[in-house]
TrEMBL record:
Start and end residues of each Cytosol aminopeptidase domain: 308-315
GO biological process: proteolysis
Source species of the chain: Luteimonas salinisoli
CDD domains named in the record: Peptidase_M17
Gene3D superfamilies membership: Leucine Aminopeptidase, subunit E, domain 1 (3.40.220.10), Zn peptidases (3.40.630.10)
Family as reported in the entry's similarity comment: Belongs to the peptidase M17 family.
Keywords of this entry: Aminopeptidase, Hydrolase, Manganese, Protease
Ranges in a coiled coil: none
Pfam families: Peptidase_M17, Peptidase_M17_N_1
GO molecular function annotation: manganese ion binding; metalloaminopeptidase activity
Protein name in the entry: Leucyl aminopeptidase family protein
Cellular-component GO terms for this entry: cytoplasm
Length: 459
């Protein structure tokens, strides 16, 4: 197994220095164990082992002989994620193996991997991360790979991550795991009864498409993952202002999450029958762009009046969710960068969870707490369906400015068959600024929690 960035195997390490993990509450006891000289050095520096801090420890030759890392909550991967960029480059080994229990060690490995991430496709990283002398267990390595996969996909500009490149990635993922793959593109969407996906994407020079990956034992419980793949969102004819359009390469963040989670399911060989569906489009402006006031057809047979062309994600997801329901799965999960309203309500760090199944929602929330990968449940308050009323169609794709995240989820629920367990996660998929382990740009949110929930449910 190749090691993720930021790690080196013991037999390949180059003069590793000792790294001490120190909790602020245990600083005095740690100093006593290190001896009088180290204790004097720590106190002379005023170091208090606060979370996110680092103190280099001097050696006899005047160099840094080791370092102490201030850590917070031991089961939170981000308690350790500052280390790769805060420590000088080179190889580091845990002193006394860190004294970590298995769960804390797993958190360290994931946090170190995430803290080592830099998107360097177009610009070389200013420095290499410090390397930890460790060989992560396969699950920790797969979790790091999945989270970094989301980051890479979201960070890649639309010129290199349009519907066709997203198809290339999904196809390669399928081939890597021996999965089946199909792409329904362009006018074939109309012929195969995916008219809403076609309507949203038809104005782009890059054809809209529905990507489908299938994997696993046909007799196993059927899990369907759906990801919104709007590779760029101009807003359509309801064009976004410049500030709102600036980062719309990230509007395929839902697809990135679904692809990464599918990769985890297959890599870890979860005993499920997996179907992945990604409606991949570009919401462009052109002579054939769908227009406000149009009534479009959907796979479900519902007619939809377009109130706002910038509420396009729910439109393409409607066709995908209808198809998912036709497969009669045990569970459907969709990920989507769906609404700014969710960010207004919960901010950038908390994805909004909606579900028609209390057990599914509760399990995902519990996994989020355990994995320190948070999400927050929001209500499917069905009286708000009145905000999606159309006078000329079965429903409108938008309407009132009230409860925008709730009404978007209610729109999606109309395309989920009654009795089908379903959860929808409205993700931001983005870090607005740099934080330790969370560089500005694309981000995986509640992905580790989703995996933990699925592993508990099926594994």
């Amino acid at each position: 197994m190749s090691l993720p960035t930021g790690f080196v195997s013991p037999d390949a390490a180059d003069a590793p220095r000792a790294l001490h993990l120190v909790d602020a509450g245990a600083l005095d006891a740690w100093c006593d164990r290190q001896g009088a000289a180290t204790a004097r050095w720590v106190r002379s520096q005023g170091w208090d082992a606060s979370p996110g801090s680092v103190l280099l420890l001097p050696g006899a030759d005047g160099g840094a002989d080791g370092a102490a890392l201030g850590v917070g909550e031991g089961l939170d991967p981000f308690s350790y994620a500052h280390a790769p960029m805060a420590l000088p480059p080179g190889d580091w080994r845990l002193a006394d193996d860190g004294g970590l229990a298995a769960e804390a060690r797993a958190a360290l490995l994931v946090g170190w991997g995430l803290g080592s991430y830099r998107f360097d496709r177009y610009k070389q990283a200013p420095r290499a991360p410090a390397r930890l002398v460790a060989e992560p267990d396969a699950e920790s390595a797969d979790l790091v790979t999945a989270c970094c996969r989301v980051r890479d996909l979201v960070n890649t500009p639309t010129e290199h991550m349009g519907p066709d490149q997203l198809e290339d990635f999904a196809r390669a993922l399928a081939e890597a795991h021996g999965a089946g793959f199909e792409s329904i593109a362009g006018d074939a969407l109309v012929a195969r009864n995916f008219p809403a996906i076609h309507a949203v994407g038809r104005a782009s020079h890059r054809a809209p498409r529905l990507l489908q990956l299938t994997w696993g034992d046909a007799a196993a419980p059927h899990l369907v993952l759906v990801g919104k793949g709007v590779c760029f969102d101009t807003g359509g004819l309801n064009i976004k202002p410049g500030e709102g359009m600036r980062n719309m390469k990230k509007d395929m963040g839902g697809a990135a999450h679904a692809l990464a989670l599918a990769g985890l399911v297959m890599a870890r060989k979860l005993p499920v029958r997996l179907t992945l569906l990604v409606p991949a489009v570009e919401n462009a402006i052109g002579p054939d762009a769908f227009r406000p006031g149009e009534v479009i057809a959907t796979r479900k047979g519902l007619s939809v009046e377009i109130d706002n062309t910038d509420a396009e994600g729910r439109v393409v997801l409607g066709d995908a969710l209808t198809y998912a329901g036709e497969l009669e799965p045990e569970l459907v999960i969709d990920f989507a960068t769906l609404t700014g309203a969710a960010r207004i309500a919960l901010g950038p760090d908390l994805p909004a969870l909606y579900s028609n199944d209390d057990a599914v929602a509760g399990a995902w929330l519990q996994a989020g707490d355990a994995q320190r990968d948070p999400l927050w449940r929001m209500p499917l308050w069905r009286p708000y369906l009145r905000y999606l009323t159309s006078r000329i169609a079965d429903l409108a794709n938008a309407g009132s400015r009230m409860a925008g995240s709730v009404t978007a989820a209610l729109y999606l629920e109309r395309f989920v068959p009654p009795g089908t367990a379903w959860a929808h996660l409205d993700v931001y998929s983005w870090n607005d600024n740099d934080r330790p382990g969370r560089p500005a740009g694309g981000e995986a949110q509640a992905l580790r929690a989703a995996w933990a929930m699925l592993k508990a449910r099926y594994g």
